[in-house]
């Protein structure tokens, strides 16, 4: 993949770096499943969520919801200021 002789814009991480060892939540889940006689071979697919590079659940949520907040707030203030200036000038003419 990648085509046209270009390298892909990303690198796919090795799946072996994501293990449930050292992640208390996933280790508890694995133990609870073992008590019921079950096993989840795909549990490692959830390990990325607990990787330090991705932050906590709340940090990810904050980043998702407030990513453009400063820019949006600044543009809203500029828009309101321009609107007040233009409507004030327009009201003075009549």
UniProtKB/TrEMBL annotation:
The keyword RNA-binding does not apply. Its main location: mitochondrion. GO terms for cellular component: mitochondrial inner membrane. The chain crosses the membrane at residues 64-82. Keywords: Electron transport, Membrane, Mitochondrion, Mitochondrion inner membrane, Respiratory chain, Transmembrane, Transmembrane helix, Transport. It is found in: Mitochondrion inner membrane. The lineage of its organism: Eukaryota, Metazoa, Ecdysozoa, Arthropoda, Hexapoda. One of its GO terms (biological process) is mitochondrial respiratory chain complex I assembly. The keyword Transcription does not apply. Accessory subunit of the mitochondrial membrane respiratory chain NADH dehydrogenase (Complex I), that is believed not to be involved in catalysis. Complex I functions in the transfer of electrons from NADH to the respiratory chain. The immediate electron acceptor for the enzyme is believed to be ubiquinone. It is a single-pass membrane protein. Belongs to the complex I NDUFB3 subunit family. This is NADH dehydrogenase [ubiquinone] 1 beta subcomplex subunit 3. InterPro entries: NDUFB3.
């Amino acid at each position: 993949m990648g085509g046209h002789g270009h390298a892909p814009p990303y690198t796919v991480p090795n799946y072996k770096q994501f293990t449930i060892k050292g992640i208390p939540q996933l280790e508890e889940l694995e133990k609870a499943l073992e008590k019921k006689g079950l096993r989840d071979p795909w549990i490692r697919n959830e390990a990325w969520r607990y990787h330090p590079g991705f932050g906590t659940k709340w940090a990810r949520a904050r980043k998702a919801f407030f990513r453009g907040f400063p820019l949006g707030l600044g543009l809203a203030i500029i828009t309101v200021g321009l609107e007040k200036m233009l409507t004030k000038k327009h009201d003075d003419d009549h």
